[in-house]
UniProtKB/TrEMBL annotation:
<keyword id="KW-0964">Secreted</keyword>
<keyword id="KW-0575">Peroxidase</keyword>
<feature type="binding site">
    <location>
        <position position="85"/>
    </location>
    <ligand>
        <name>Ca(2+) 1</name>
    </ligand>
</feature>
<feature type="active site" description="Proton acceptor">
    <location>
        <position position="66"/>
    </location>
</feature>
<keyword id="KW-0349">Heme</keyword>
<feature type="binding site">
    <location>
        <position position="191"/>
    </location>
    <ligand>
        <name>Ca(2+) 2</name>
    </ligand>
</feature>
<dbReference type="InterPro" id="IPR000823">
    <property type="entry name" value="Peroxidase_pln"/>
</dbReference>
<keyword id="KW-0732">Signal</keyword>
<dbReference type="GO" id="GO:0009505">
    <property type="term" value="C:plant-type cell wall"/>
</dbReference>
<feature type="disulfide bond">
    <location>
        <begin position="68"/>
        <end position="73"/>
    </location>
</feature>
<feature type="binding site">
    <location>
        <position position="160"/>
    </location>
    <ligand>
        <name>substrate</name>
    </ligand>
</feature>
<dbReference type="InterPro" id="IPR010255">
    <property type="entry name" value="Haem_peroxidase_sf"/>
</dbReference>
<dbReference type="GO" id="GO:0005576">
    <property type="term" value="C:extracellular region"/>
</dbReference>
<protein>
    <recommendedName>
        <fullName>Peroxidase</fullName>
        <ecNumber>1.11.1.7</ecNumber>
    </recommendedName>
</protein>
<feature type="disulfide bond">
    <location>
        <begin position="35"/>
        <end position="112"/>
    </location>
</feature>
<feature type="domain" description="Plant heme peroxidase family profile">
    <location>
        <begin position="25"/>
        <end position="327"/>
    </location>
</feature>
<feature type="disulfide bond">
    <location>
        <begin position="118"/>
        <end position="323"/>
    </location>
</feature>
Amino acid sequence: MKTSNNISFAWFITISMLCLLANSQLTTNFYSQSCPKLQSIVRRQVTMALKTEMRMAASLLRLHFHDCFVNGCDASILLDGADGEKFALPNNNSARGYEVVDAIKTAVESSCSGVVSCADILTIAARDSVVLSGGTGWPVLLGRRDGFVANQSGANSNLPAPFENIGNITLKFEAVGLNLTDVVSLSGAHTIGQASCATFGNRLFNFSGTNAPDSTLLDQNMLTGLQNLCPVNGDSSRTSPLDWNSTDLFDNHYFQNLVKGRGVLESDQILYSSDEALTTTRSLVELYSNDKDAFANDFKNSMIKMGNIQPLTGSAGEIRRNCRVVNS
Ligand code: HEM
Ligand SMILES: *[C@@H]1O[C@H](CO)[C@@H](O)[C@H](O)[C@H]1NC(C)=O
Ligand SMILES: *[C@@H]1O[C@H](CO)[C@@H](O)[C@H](O)[C@H]1NC(C)=O
Ligand SMILES: *[C@@H]1O[C@H](CO)[C@@H](O)[C@H](O)[C@H]1NC(C)=O
Ligand SMILES: *[C@@H]1O[C@H](CO)[C@@H](O)[C@H](O)[C@H]1NC(C)=O
Ligand SMILES: *[C@@H]1O[C@H](CO)[C@@H](O)[C@H](O)[C@H]1NC(C)=O
Ligand SMILES: *[C@@H]1O[C@H](CO)[C@@H](O)[C@H](O)[C@H]1NC(C)=O
């Protein structure tokens, strides 16, 4: 009994120290000596990009998510090449913002050459995108390094699809150390940005062979609007805002929409309307729809958690000179 307690205690200490170590590798002041102006350089570039196109905030936020879920937050999504993550099903013709990341990287390099990773640039740009869209910010942990490989099959298997149920989506979050709270809070990112007909058109006319639209899409105005945008055999690349209430504003209207049956993606609406939701996500959707501060706080914590997925630190990986290619 005593020995087993001692062993448990030793394990507890070991694991606690490992956790401390893992956390202490990323720090908010990682570049304070080597690139003191980093934060303002990135903020300025993101601001400029949003002046050209407000949707870019959503695209940059999504790039960071799609980076972190595949081989960790290592900028693997930015690597060019036919076998890259860019061309995986969830990203092909959908993930965007690569040119903006290039512009940020160029601006950063001209001020402090060879020290800031593309993975950290993506993380800061995602936070800035939320803030410049009216959301609440957070201190970004830094010190990630860039990976050597893109993983197309990893992108296909790890990234959630809009046709999956809550159980399956949750499994994909749990596979990278996130939980059910993170599923709901991070889905709140769909308060900005656009989705193409390809990702929700199945809900509009003959949902699951019912010869009727998805009955959980309650707003008839919105249903008609989406049907006109995405007719059967129409152009599946046309896009709709994900939040019909305040498209470019980072607020909690996404959750208010779900309560009113105004979610665009099936994977959005099921968080409130499905049977599974009753025992999993519905109460959180209700909380966030009524309490914007609860959403802002949980979103912040979940984004920090997501940014901590398997970072390369120390001498692992490299600092890429060009975010699209590994250094030779
Ligand atoms: C919970 C599982 C999720 C699913 C199934 C999902 C699925 C999708 C789909 C299908 C689109 C539309 C893509 C297109 O048509 O081009 C989209 C867009 C978007 N997603 Fe998600 N997503 C999920 C979680 C997240 C998370 C965790 C974030 C970020 C924290 C996020 C941020 C975004 C943003 C900002 C957009 C709009 C992008 C733009 O306008 O360029 N999503 N998502
Ligand atoms: C990506 O999209 C392009 C253009 O639609 C298509 O030609 C190509 O086959 C797609 N790539 C993959 C790997 O599916
Ligand atoms: C690609 O991703 C899958 C799923 O996360 C992982 O099992 C595999 O080891 C990765 N491959 C490489 C080359 O990183
Ligand atoms: C959930 O995942 C299982 C196993 O991959 C798959 O067979 C099933 O079709 C998925 N269901 C949904 C609704 O995504
Ligand atoms: C998810 O993890 C956070 C800590 O990261 C915790 O506060 C929260 O209660 C967890 N949620 C669930 C449903 O386990
Ligand atoms: C609706 O889908 C079901 C199952 O895929 C199919 O059998 C039926 O013919 C479709 N109805 C119409 C009007 O296309
Ligand atoms: C958006 O939601 C807010 C809060 O519920 C409401 O006051 C406003 O009228 C809505 N706007 C639109 C365009 O639906």
